[in-house]
Amino acid sequence: MRDNTPRLFESTNWATGEGTGKMMKRPATSTREGAGLIAVMSIALLSMTSAAQAEADGPDWWTVTGVGANDVLNIRAEPAASAEKIGEVPTNAQGLRNLGCTGEMSFAEWEKATETEREQARFNRWCKIRYAGTTGWVAGRYLTEGAPPQDDQEIVESGEYSFGAWSVFCESELCNSAYQYGRGGSVPTILRVKRGMDESPEILVEGGPFTPSGEVAFLIDGEFVTGGLASTLQTGSSDDLVLSPDDITYALARRMRLGTTMVLTVPRAQGLETVEFDLDGFEEALRQVQKP
Q1: β-bridge pairing 261-268 and 271-278
Q2: What is the pTM of this model?
Q3: What is the pLDDT of residues 10-42, one digit of tens each?
Q4: Phi-psi region for residue 237, left (φ > 0), alpha (ψ -120 to 50) or beta?
Q5: Which CATH class is domain 9-49+152-290?
């Protein structure tokens, strides 16, 4: 069973970003700490990179369909045919990560729609995907449900392996942790993901000391995901912040798999600092760490 010790608070619905109203118990926040959290939320609003919001429905993975043998599926910066082209996907390619689609009908609308209206909705759909390190939008009419990609690297001996921005340390065929040095902050900060229990990893923030009474916050692609007092994440004499394997850590890792950039705010003696991490390759790195 996962450790459900109340230590962080849930502020959003993991799939849609809407408030759930479900709160985990946490210490009362002082006026000064509340001001810090307001500053964190301001960072979240300033960090939004795209006005287009996608609903995280549908399959986890897509396969390209309906594209000619000598053609490609264009990846756009925004959900529009006129948007900048930032990449392309070969015909019949598999393993496109589904990051959500926009322009789709609700079930109620689908029931009432004519076949012509349904076909038009399919034609207008745009889906945000990640493929071969590129994240962007593609025309949804060229996608069908698919399977996850095969691992690009076969771990056969001890050493460090790279997956996007992440380094994975392995002993023989067993990989115990993935890590990345963050950008920003007054001292080097490392985000480390270790083998956990069930489906949840353990997540550590290394690079203390951190101010126990200050707020820690995790923002992914400009959206505030979760946070809490640093003291609730500190154990013993360690300066690290530790998110033990549980439902909240599992949900955070899931959001990291789907995201592009994570901004972590941490409290230090001189005040709140922000550290940025690239989530490219995180899903592959996590898969290696969680392999049985």
Answers
A1: antiparallel
A2: 0.58
A3: 433 323 333 333 323 333 344 344 444 444 444
A4: alpha
A5: mainly beta
Pair type for strands 174-181 and 166-171: antiparallel
Residue 73 predicted with pLDDT over 90: yes
Banded pLDDT at 154 (limits 50, 70, 90) = low
Separation CA 271–CA 67 (nearest Å): 53
User: What is the CATH T-level fold of the domain 61-145, as seen in this structure?
Assistant: SH3 type barrels. (2.30.30)
Distance CA 242, CA 202 (A): 7
Q: Check whether 57 has a pLDDT greater than 70.
A: no
Q: Name the phi and psi angles at 166, rounded to 5.
A: -105, 145
CA atoms of 88 and 76, how far apart (whole Å): 9
Work out the burial of residue 83: count CB atoms within 10 Å of its CB; fewer than 13 is exposed, 13-18 middle, 19 or more buried: middle
